[in-house]
């Protein structure tokens, strides 16, 4: 017989209720109301889950009335004894765990600090005045109107944007074979071969109408050239995005990195290379970065030293942009090799160009149609030697400013220096400043054995390079093949202020330190790089490692003790703090070419190197030491440590006192 739980509970409750009613205590209490007994009656409904009062509640109530109820066994029912579980009380406290989450930026307004006398400064001042007017001034008293902001469901348009519908119609036409034959017969077909990457050739077929090639006519338009240039920039960005970001210093090393290596590595970003015809100059003779726009590089194609045994017939100047490393954006062709180029720091769009035949040109690269502004004239500048160097100089304070554009100096290989001025004329106004003569006897500086007197074929030395003084812009230094430096001034024509013997052979380059106007370096054909200090006629430091001439050397604008040098086979990086016996690294990218010239970028983290194959390699300096906070103090301490064993020279350097810039 199965036991129904509902019947069992009902039977048990009725028996318990009978015992309670027969109790003697309840019989003696007449004042007990029937409502209290009714509260003990549990309404029974169908289903076990409908009972609202449990047996535990009833037993607790009976105990409070001091009743002892004995449970009797029910016949026919077998109940299982179960232990009563303790009642679990709910904890009145709630445990809350607070954890830090990522910041959620709701609003941010960063402060901006710019120079006051610049265009950005004027814009910030106007923005501040407008903000003050709208928040504190009369501008805060503005009228406003209530307008709905919900987007309307119905889309409408004004009458101004309505246009007439285009009428379409089907019209039949007939062209016979004779008419098509006559039409194409009138067109003059021309097929040309176009070089692709200098190796492949592609056949291009064009047609002339009335003897005029439409493609050539369109190609001559400046609008088409501008559109083509912008298109090539966009296409080049797909392949050179990562190197361009590195050139712009968008990815710099982390100074807080756990692992840092100083390997002085040099990596190739890209190569500027153009297609040259037979008879054109292929050797890179000079490089010049635009002073106001560091992405623009002017490259001259000419002769370099003894590399070219045959003088080429033509030369050119290419203006490259890092946004388009594949094709130059400006090409200027000349009938003679180009030896030197130099951008003007005062008018950055002006480019001075020196040729192998001694002529000088000035071009405006912003003018596409007529870039040439002026050129030298034989009657005024009869020099016919190659122009080896060009330098722009400011207007002299002692002279009256007659022309707006600043003049520039041109150094010829025969040792003559000419100052050119741009006037309202197609020709430059030339004025001869200096004609160098060979040095007799021993000059100040290095002492060498006097060689037997030899009758020279030319009484003028061969001028190689020219450098402007770091502070006195009217003073310039001329480097010759005798290893001497001639100090001259634009205020004293045909006079030499000083002559110094700095190298045993010819001097190729000279540059002042960015951190000291008195400290400069020179490099020459005696395989040495020497560092000098004005007032001391002995080299402070001599760097010599490779047995080949040093063509160029320059100070790093990022680290005061690092020097980048170039010789025939490699690019060397010297760290004076690390070693003066050998370079920290030596790199050669193209094993088949020889390097000719070098030019460091304005930021100091990249360098452009030219070779004799007509290519310019743009290199980046990786894994370099972090710049010191005090550049001059770091350089001064490095020099003192190197001169620690030379007491006399160290005493002479310290006697000069502070040799850096006053504001640095």
TrEMBL record:
One of its GO terms (biological process) is cilium movement. GO terms for cellular component: axonemal dynein complex; dynein axonemal particle. This is Dynein axonemal intermediate chain 4. The keyword DNA damage does not apply. It is found in: Cytoplasm, Cytoskeleton, Flagellum axoneme; Dynein axonemal particle. Signal peptide: none annotated. SMART domains: WD40 (SM00320). Keywords: Cell projection, Cilium, Cytoplasm, Cytoskeleton, Flagellum, Repeat, WD repeat. The keyword Protein transport does not apply. PANTHER family: DYNEIN AXONEMAL INTERMEDIATE CHAIN 4 (PTHR12442:SF12), DYNEIN INTERMEDIATE CHAIN (PTHR12442). The lineage of its organism: Eukaryota, Metazoa, Ecdysozoa, Arthropoda, Hexapoda. Gene3D superfamilies: YVTN repeat-like/Quinoprotein amine dehydrogenase (2.130.10.10).
